[in-house]
Amino acid sequence: MPSFVAVEEVWGDLNRDSCTPTAVDVVTSSLSGEDLVRSYVYQLHADAEHAAIARGAAPRSEEKNLNAALKRTQVSRSSLVGWKQSAEVALEAFAQGRLLVFVDDRQVMPGTPAVLVPARATVRFVQLLPLVGG
C-alpha cells in the first residue's frame, strides 16, 4: 500500500512546538490536493483515537481533571468533532489559501488534477495564521 510522510507546520504561531511527522497510508499514489488533505485529517483523527484508547487503562492526573470538567459541562461523545467535519474545515482553508500543501518541493494547488505522490514522499501541510494587528 502506498504511503507518504506528512509534516505539519504553522506559520504565525510563535508558541507552538513543531509536530512530529505522521505516516499516512493511501490506496493510490495519484492524489489531488483535496485527497491529500482528507487523508491527513483522517489519519490524525485515527491516531488520536488510538492513543486515547491505549491510554484509557491508566489516565494521568491531568486527564482525570479534564474528564471531571467534561462531566460537569455534560459534553457527550456524540458532540465531539468527527474527522469528516475536520476535513471540511481543512478543505475550506486549502481552497482559501490558508493551508498550503507541498509534495516534496512542489506546491499542490486547489482544484488541480491528481499528482503522483512518490513512495515515501514528504507531504508538507503549512497552515498560515494571521498575525495580531497585521
Give an overview in words.
- The chain has 134 residues and is α+β, with helices and mostly antiparallel strands.
- It has a single domain (3-53, 82-128), classed as Roll (Ubiquitin-like (UB roll)).
- The chain has helices at residues 33-55, 61-73, 83-95, and strands at 3-11, 22-25, 30-31, 99-103, 106-108, 115-116, 121-128.
- It has a 5-stranded mixed β-sheet, with helices on one face.
- α1 (33-55) packs antiparallel against α3 (83-95).
- The longest helix has 23 residues, at 33-55.
- Residues 12-16 have low confidence and may be disordered.
Summary tags:
134 residues; Ubiquitin-like (UB roll); 3 helices; 5-stranded mixed beta sheet; 25% strand; two-stranded antiparallel sheet; alpha+beta
CATH architecture: Roll
Give helix and strand order, one letter per element, not per position: EEEHHHEEEE
Pairing-aware structural class of the strands and helices?
Answer: alpha+beta
Overall strand count: 7
Uncertain parts: 12-16
Tell me the Rg in angstroms.
Answer: 17 Å
Gap from first CA to last CA:
44 Å
Averaging pLDDT over every residue, what do you get?
A: 74
- The DSSP helix count reads 3
Largest sheet: number of strands, sense, barrel closure: 5 strands, mixed
Overall helicity: 25-40%
Strand content: 15-25%
**In order across it, which strands form the biggest sheet?**
2-1-7-4-5
CATH topology: Ubiquitin-like (UB roll)
